[in-house]
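Example record

One chain of 400 residues, shown exactly as stored in the release files.
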Amino acid sequence: MKKTLKIISLAICIVLCAVMLTLRVRAVPESPVISETSPEPPSDTRPVETPPVETPKPTPPPEPEYFTLSFVGDNTLNSAPKFLQSQQGYAKTMNGDYAYPYSNTVDYFRDDDMTFANLECNFSDQDLQSIEWFYFRTPTEWANILVEGDVDFVTTANNHMMDFGQKGADSTYATLDEYGIAYGKEGEGTIFETESGLKIGIYCDYNKYKPDKNKCVAEIKKLREQGAEYIMCAFHWGKDELFYTPTDFMVELARACVDAGADLVYGSHTHCLQPIEEYNGGLILYSMGNWSFGGHTAPSDPDTAIVKVKVKRDSDGTISNEGYEIIPCCISSDIEGAQKLWEAKQKGGNPTSFYNNYCPTPYPEDSEGYARVMAKLGGTYEGPDGKTDYGWVATGGQSG
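Predicted structure tokens for this chain:
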């Protein structure tokens, strides 16, 4: 019995001790945990600086592109029969140097986008018979004259292309193809793309000096549909030679073409310069006269010119003429001889002179020739019209 009471008392003591120990533990406050490895940095009360926001720069608008087109007159690259073997003729004057005819002007063409001319001769090595009074047949190798002169495109739509029939024309086209010179044919339009990427639509027409207006308008529309950006018409017109004023027909046709969408009209045949007209955004070169012209050793009018047209392609693809530059020239490098003959002709004389050496040369700015060219192209020239003056050199229909 006592043993049982002792056991009960011991059990009670153990329970009381456990209760007291629990109460003691609860009374002890918890200690904060302090990290010895990563102490908190002291607080920084300074304001945080926000980096400035850069305003994006606007993208500059695309720059417009500019192109230069150069125009010269008639290229008759051989003499008439009477002078084929003469010391004053084209062959002996050139003396095998194909760079010679353009030697004083080629620098004006090297950096342009297109040089355009009227070709008034046939390239053929055959002894063809001319069906006309004239005999302007040129050896095929002489196409190097155009190559050396940096000529890019010629119109063959004129009154001399069929002088030797279809054989002469076909030989001419084949020669131009062989030497890489682009060309336009009678009554046809073509697309010529410059190395700089301008697509030029060119329509060429002669039609016995009377291009048909309705056909011209239709061809302009067709060229536009074919992707031409810049459109020009090349006409051989104005049957009367050495007249300094365009006929009513020429004016009406040129303006109708511009109204239909042509940007430029190029004229040839009169063997003299006629005015340049700015019309409805287009440019009309009524006649560019002679250039390297073998048809006469001493034409009564020695004046010619280079016309350089500046073309603008805007960022939206719009094409426009942005002005032009005139370089007045003489058809020969013998400017003094040309001036003497001009003065004698104006006084009614009929001098014999062989001033034409087929090498067009710029006039000095202070010369009378320079002033004449500017007056003729500006429409202020008041001199008398002339008459055809080279018939006496075109003798027979065969080479001599």
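Notes: The longest strand covers residues 65-76.
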